[in-house]
Amino acid sequence: MQQIKRAKSKKYAFDWRDKPVIYVKPGETFEVETWDASTGYFQSVNDKAIPSLRPGFDKTPPLTNPIGGPIFIDGAKPGDSLVVYIENITVDQYSWTVIGPNRGPLGNSTLWPTLSNEYTTKIFRHSSGPSGTTRDGILHFNNKIEWPITPFVGTIGVAAEREVFSSGDGQGAWGGNLDIRDIAPGNEVYLPIYHDGALLYLGDVHASQGDTEFTGTAAETKATVRLHVKILRGIKTPWMRIVKPNSIVSIYAYRPLEIAVETATVYLMNWLVQSFNYKPVDAYALITTCPDFRINIYQMVRLGKLNYVAGAEIPKSYLQE
Fold first, then answer.
1. Tens-digit pLDDT profile for the chain (321 aa)?
2. Which of 67, 115, 180, 187 pairs as cysteine with 298 (C-beta 3.0–4.6 A)?
């Protein structure tokens, strides 16, 4: 099985000019070893998020969210769509999150000065689950609180039709740093293709995260991601889509949030009309009356240039073939 080793997973931009690291065929399983969002800087509570101490923060833009790739997909052409199936994710033995001055919406808080006057690093221990690995393990928040590890790929995408200088804040129809907790094992991610071979990149795995990644970092960790891909010929997905075992999700990212929510919903309606025999009037009525229609707010943090990421979701039981 082909694998991108962690030493080669240090790209910081989605760049179509990069030489492919591996070449894979549709249906072929392969692995990518990923770094955490700090490229290994945060290892203990003594490692603080002080910009002058962090490697790569003397660059513009800063070198955050390293990604592995590009991965050349045999037969992928512009105008097609790439379907990425996440088979499993094995995370490292710990994860981290950081808080400090000028970070996130409370980085200048006067209500809680400890959030804005000092740097804090939290390290979370991981333990293995029934499989003997962290794929189904436990994240220990402290000595009393714990929860199942629920890993997902925070940054994933193909080389865009334009220059994307940073994997830290690059976002678009092609993917990017979207922090969508549904880019997880068992789900399919649909991406439009702009270059021969698609040129897939991924990294920035989170061991767990709630909605919005409110502080700007979740449970950041190194990981090994196992996946395979397929190609949809002649179908160009307008924006990232996700197919889960029991539902479909249309994604959009923008500021303000209401535009992201509205556009994700319109794109879901378009999906229903084009692929599932809905008339526009019925699709419109469905998303406003169906009790199981959901809007997911995956990423909404005031951090740099990041847009807010929304997903419009409907169960498969409402789809018409």
1. 999 999 999 999 999 999 999 999 999 999 999 999 999 999 999 999 999 999 999 998 889 999 999 999 999 999 999 999 999 999 999 999 999 998 888 999 999 999 989 999 999 999 999 999 999 999 999 999 999 999 999 999 999 998 888 998 889 999 999 999 999 999 999 999 999 999 999 999 999 999 889 999 999 999 999 999 999 999 999 999 999 999 999 999 999 999 999 999 999 999 999 999 999 999 999 999 999 999 999 999 887 789 999 999 999 999 987
2. 180
| pTM of the predicted protein model | 0.95
Give the domain CATH number at 317. Answer: 3.10.28.20
Domain limits for position 253: 246-321
Q: How many CA atoms lie within 13 A of 41 on its CB side?
A: 21
List, in order, residues 6 or more apart from 288 with CB less than 8 Å away. Answer: none
Strands across the sheet with 120-127, in order?
Answer: 94-99, 120-127, 138-140, 146-148
Tokens of 205: 């795995």
**Cα dihedral 42/46/47/49 (nearest 10):** 120
* Residue type present at position 14: F
Task: State how far the Cα of 41 lies from the Cα of 48, in Å rounded to an integer.
Answer: 9
What is the DSSP annotation of 28-54? Answer: --EEEEE--TTTT---STT----GGGS
Question: Is the CB of residue 183 less than 8 Å from the CB of residue 242?
Answer: yes
- The neighbour count for residue 290, using CB atoms within 10 Å, is 12
Nearest CA among 83, 70, 28, 76 for reference residue 240 = 83
CATH assignment of the domain containing 74:
2.60.120.580
Task: Please count the structural domains in the chain.
Answer: 2
Whole-angstrom Cα distance, residue 250 to residue 293? 12
Pair 203, 5: CB distance under 8 Å: no
* Within a domain: 240: no
**Ramachandran angles phi, psi of 257, nearest 5°:** -60, -35
Q: Give, to the nearest 10 degrees, the angle between helix 280-289 and helix 257-275.
A: 130
